[in-house]
Specification:
This protein is an alpha/beta fold. About 35% of the residues lie in helices and about 15% in strands. It has a seven-stranded mixed beta sheet, sandwiched between helices. Helix 6 packs parallel to helix 7 (about 210-220) and helix 10 (about 315-335) packs parallel to helix 12. It is globular. The protein starts with about 20 loop residues before the first strand and ends with a helix. It binds pyridoxal-5'-phosphate. Pyridoxal-5'-phosphate binds next to helix 4. InterPro entries: Aminotrans_3 (IPR005814), BioA (IPR005815), PyrdxlP-dep_Trfase (IPR015424), PyrdxlP-dep_Trfase_major (IPR015421), PyrdxlP-dep_Trfase_small (IPR015422).
Length: about 425
């Protein structure tokens, strides 16, 4: 057994797998210490949007590092944060008037939940039940786990997780989901939190924009706050800047992280509609929003986010996303005929399929076996159980993307 001190996330060190060391990355590729080039087909766990080490983002961080590294954000401000907030206001729906900074997707979800509970508490209504969708993932902190799917990932912590109302993942026309949401809303709830269009960690499960719009309508009808967790789906992943855009819905609270800095450094925002902010606005200090973390709106991270917003304005990002989305759909469709492949699906730049007839257990060794196989072929893929998905940086060229899909097709053929 290794005596190295690092305890890696989502890693069973007891299995003794070696842990490759990455020394460099550019575009859609990473390079290991032992000289291997791998195609990053999962955008380094869904964060890298434009590509690794985008020069404008790297330069922005380097220049900011000459000016201001870190400053308390409670009662203080700085230009990079102001630039990011103004940029987000310009890019995103007008209704989302307020920008609260934090540093990870999980934290942005905790902040969203606290904002929703604070909203109801300060209005003197004791609403605190949260509604969620089956198979959701919202992060690994206790609150985020509470609103996510329960399973092997959080079984030891289950006694501490709070109770929520669950609606089923939409099947068929999704009527069952809508009916369940309606019934849960009738019982009274503070908020419904949902991953719009694609449930990421739940297995790249997809549902239509029409259903998202209906869910929003039901929440509005019952005064239940609608929280969109776009930590994964935001920044173009599903083909539009926000997945919510495809349903023409605007949430009351929006969580963004992963692609906010182009995937270079950690940063998150929770954006709120004016009534949420107003519920906390008072001369009474007891109603202020009691949340902060040490590195809230860290200037280096904000400089990276400002550069990302600049790239969205100055480069043909939308065209790249459209092009990649079309290529992904073509590649995915081509695998539909393989006997070992089921449930081929895609949404924007994300494409996924299920392999083999084996039980879709996260603990089965299919995923790690496939991961090792792909790694040997110079491809970074990390299947979720028996779900293989491709979610590359938008800059990936056709030679690399084609190699990824060929490797998946060959792996599928060995499973027949
Ligand atoms: C990744 C993810 C999170 C958690 O973000 P972290 O930065 O890993 O804490 C939350 N929600 C969704 C939908 C995610 O995909």
């Amino acid at each position: 057994m290794s005596d190295k001190p690092i305890w890696h996330p989502f890693t069973q060190h007891g299995l003794g797998d070696d842990i490759p060391e990455v020394v460099r990355a550019e575009g859609a590729a990473i390079h290991t210490r032992d000289g291997q080039r791998l195609i990053d087909a999962i955008s380094s766990w869904w964060v890298t949007t434009h590509g690794h080490c985008h020069p404008k983002i790297m330069t922005a961080i380097a220049e900011q590092a000459q000016q201001l590294d870190q400053i308390i954000f409670a009662g203080w401000t700085h230009e990079p944060a102001e630039t990011v907030a103004a940029g987000l206001r310009r890019m995103l729906p007008d209704e989302l008037t307020r920008v609260f900074f934090s540093d990870s997707g999980s934290t942005s979800v905790e902040v969203a939940l606290k904002m929703a509970l604070g909203f109801w508490a300060h209005r003197g209504e004791g609403r605190h039940r949260i509604l969620v969708m089956e198979h959701s993932y919202h992060g690994d902190t206790i609150g985020a786990m509470s609103v996510g799917a329960r399973g092997v990932f959080n079984a030891p912590y289950d006694p501490l997780l709070f109770d929520v109302g669950r609606v089923p993942f939409p099947e068929g026309n999704g009527q069952e989901t809508l009916d369940a949401l309606e019934a849960e809303c009738r019982k009274g709830a503070a908020a419904f939190i949902v991953e719009p269009l694609v449930l990421g960690a739940g297995g790249m499960l997809m549902y239509g924009a029409g259903l998202l719009a209906e869910m929003r309508r039901i929440c509005t009808a019952h005064g239940v706050l609608f929280i969109a967790d776009e930590v994964m789906t935001g920044w173009g992943r599903t083909g539009t800047l926000l997945a919510c855009d495809q349903a023409k819905v605007v949430p009351d609270i929006l969580c963004l992280s992963k692609g906010l800095t182009g995937g270079a450094v950690p940063l998150a925002v929770t954006m709120a509609a004016e009534p949420i902010y107003e519920a906390h606005l008072s001369e009474d200090r007891a109603k202020m929003f009691y949340h902060s973390s040490s590195y809230t709106a860290n200037p280096l991270a904000c400089a990276a986010a400002a550069a990302n917003i600049g790239i969205w304005k100055s480069e043909p990002v939308e065209a790249r996303i459209r092009d990649l989305s079309a290529r992904q759909a073509d590649h995915a469709r081509a695998l539909e005929a393989l006997p070992a492949v089921r449930n081929v699906r895609w949404c924007g730049t994300i494409a996924a399929l299920d392999l083999g007839g084996e039980a879709a257990s996260y603990l089965s060794d299919l995923a790690p076996r496939l991961m090792r196989r792909f790694r040997g072929e110079g491809i970074l893929l990390r299947p979720l159980g028996n779900t293989v998905y491709v979610m590359p940086p938008y800059c990936i060229d056709e030679a690399d993307l084609g190699r990824v899909w060929t490797a998946i097709a060959e792996a599928a053929e060995t499973l027949e």
